[in-house]
Amino acid sequence: MKKIILITGGQRSGKSREAERMALSLTDRPVYLATAHVWDEEFQERVRKHQERRGPQWTNIEEERWLSRHDVTGRVVVIDCVTLWLTNFFFDTQDVDATLDTAKTEFDRLTQQDATFIFVTNEIGSGGVSDNAVQRRFTDLEGWMNQYIAEQADEVILMVSGIAVKIK
């Protein structure tokens, strides 16, 4: 049975750990669909720590853009994270409308599969308005995509200081 869960919150709020905990409560062989593009050594170290924390029971898939090309039917899948995934599209064009259309289409294709999807995302718009025009456009993009996923989600969880607060 298809299910969509969205876990959102600020940086270092515990989103990924909660998604991993939730996935392991649903299956002993979850999938981790990592969307990050590794830009530098510091970020590579973050990725390594995440992988180490997860352990061998996870099926790890590295996919920066085209999530729907992977058949995850019947699986529990953590998609971590929407913010980095959107960045991968936005970085090429900085076109909010085109990126949003592409991301929605790809989200729809992925979630047509019969699986449990746990999307991790950031609430980057909670920190105030940036004085940088590109950052403002990306914040708008992120907010609209988060709303799109939340609208279709069966559950939405806000992480606050490591505590899961059920929103929907």
Question: Can you describe this structure?
Answer:
The protein has 168 residues and is of the alpha/beta class. It is built from 5 helices and 7 strands, in the order E-H-E-H-E-E-H-H-E-H-E-E. The longest helix has 20 residues, at 133-152. It is globular, with a radius of gyration of 15 Å. The chain starts with a strand and ends with a strand.
- Outline the biggest β-sheet: 7 strands, mixed
Low-confidence stretches: none
What is the overall shape?
Answer: globular
What is the share of helical residues?
40-55%
Order of helices and strands: EHEHEEHHEHEE
Number of helices: 5
Q: Kindly report the oligomeric state of this protein.
A: single chain
Strand content: 15-25%
Distance between the termini: 19 Å
- Let me know the average pLDDT: 91
How are strands sequenced across the largest beta sheet? 3-2-4-5-1-6-7
Number of strands: 7
Report the C-alpha radius of gyration, rounded.
15 Å
Global structural class: alpha/beta
Give me the secondary-structure topology.
Blueprint: E1 3-9, H1 15-26, E2 31-34, H2 41-54, E3 59-62, E4 76-80, H3 82-93, H4 96-110, E5 116-120, H5 133-152, E6 155-160, E7 163-166
Parallel strand pairs: 1-5, 1-6, 2-3, 2-4, 4-5
Antiparallel strand pairs: 6-7
Helix pairs in contact: 3-4, 3-5, 4-5
